[in-house]
């Protein structure tokens, strides 16, 4: 699917904007597909958009990227037709405000363990009366003031997504209640952190059961649940089997590294014959 076909008409001309992430979730052909962005390069976002991903999560938790870098990547994503979400390091209403006004279609908050933490995140993401986000319609999110303020506010309330990460046993057991918080739009299961917090691995039967129960609880609450996995068909099949509505396949750095290793292995698999080496030796004398 090309970026041009996925681009959503802006609201400046009078039409209502539609979240690319929400539109991808509504497809019936399988989970919405995204990847993490960890490299401070505009080209990463452009390349994954051209590859056909539905969304990216610009990762400010596990990278050294700045808000300004995220701001530029958000702009590239929007122009390339791929939905930009941003994972913040921890809940900070000021950071949330800046990223949303930079045009992010959603905010992902790590380590949401309780209903109270989910409510605090929702308050940071939503405008009054739901939350406490300030109005900044002269930013990119408001088309630099060219968008009607009513549409800027509507988009922030109805289209922007808040993704709560479930990364502990406590969070997994509270997944249904967290999903039911007004303003929470999706859950992301953090299997690695959950397993580590329990002193075990993702394959542990207890962890597998906790995750399955959390996915079921989130789904029952009417909230899509996602996961993060590898860039393989097996990982995609596991996501479908696990009931996930969206899935993150690897990240830009790992995809680049994997392609580089594959290129080197392919090139080094070609061996020169003795005749070839003899010819090369004579040609240099």
Automatic annotation (TrEMBL):
Signal peptide residue numbers: none
Annotated keywords: Lyase, Metal-binding
InterPro entries: Aldolase/citrate-lyase_domain (IPR005000), HpcH-HpaI_aldolase (IPR050251), Pyrv/PenolPyrv_kinase-like_dom (IPR015813), Pyrv_kinase-like_dom_sf (IPR040442)
GO molecular function, one term: metal ion binding
Pfam families: HpcH_HpaI
Residue stretches making up the HpcH/HpaI aldolase/citrate lyase domain: 34-223
Family that this chain belongs to: Belongs to the HpcH/HpaI aldolase family.
PANTHER family noted in UniProt: 2-KETO-3-DEOXY-L-RHAMNONATE ALDOLASE (PTHR30502), PHOSPHOENOLPYRUVATE CARBOXYLASE FAMILY PROTEIN (PTHR30502:SF0)
Name of the protein: 2,4-dihydroxyhept-2-ene-1,7-dioic acid aldolase
Organism: Schumannella soli
Organism classification: Bacteria, Bacillati, Actinomycetota, Actinomycetes, Micrococcales
């Amino acid at each position: 699917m090309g970026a041009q076909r996925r681009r959503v008409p802006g609201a400046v001309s009078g039409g209502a904007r539609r979240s690319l992430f929400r539109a991808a979730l509504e497809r019936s052909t399988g989970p919405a597909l995204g990847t993490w962005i960890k490299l401070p390069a505009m080209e990463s976002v452009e390349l994954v958009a051209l590859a056909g991903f539905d969304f990216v999560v610009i990762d400010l938790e596990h990278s050294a990227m700045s808000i300004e870098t995220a701001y530029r990547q958000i702009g590239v994503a929007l122009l390339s037709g791929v939905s930009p979400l941003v994972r913040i390091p921890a809940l900070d209403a000021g950071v949330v405000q800046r990223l949303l006004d930079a045009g992010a279609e959603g905010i992902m908050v790590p380590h949401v363990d309780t209903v109270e933490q989910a409510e605090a995140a929702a308050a940071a993401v939503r405008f009054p009366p739901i939350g406490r986000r300030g109005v900044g319609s002269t930013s990119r999110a408001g088309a630099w003031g060219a968008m009607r303020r009513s549409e800027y506010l509507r988009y922030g309330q109805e289209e922007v997504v808040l993704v709560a990460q479930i990364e502990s046993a406590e969070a997994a057991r509270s997944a249904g209640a967290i999903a039911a918080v007004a303003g929470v739009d999706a859950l992301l299961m953090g299997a690695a952190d959950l397993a580590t917090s329990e002193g075990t691995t993702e394959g542990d039967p207890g962890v597998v059961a906790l995750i399955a129960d959390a996915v079921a609880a989130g789904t029952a609450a009417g909230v899509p649940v996602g996961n993060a996995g590898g860039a393989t068909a097996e990982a995609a099949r596991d996501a479908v089997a696990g009931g996930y509505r969206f899935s993150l396949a690897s990240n830009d750095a790992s995809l680049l590294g994997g392609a580089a290793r594959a290129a080197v292995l392919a090139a080094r698999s070609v061996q020169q014959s003795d005749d070839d080496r003899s010819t090369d030796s004579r040609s240099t004398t």
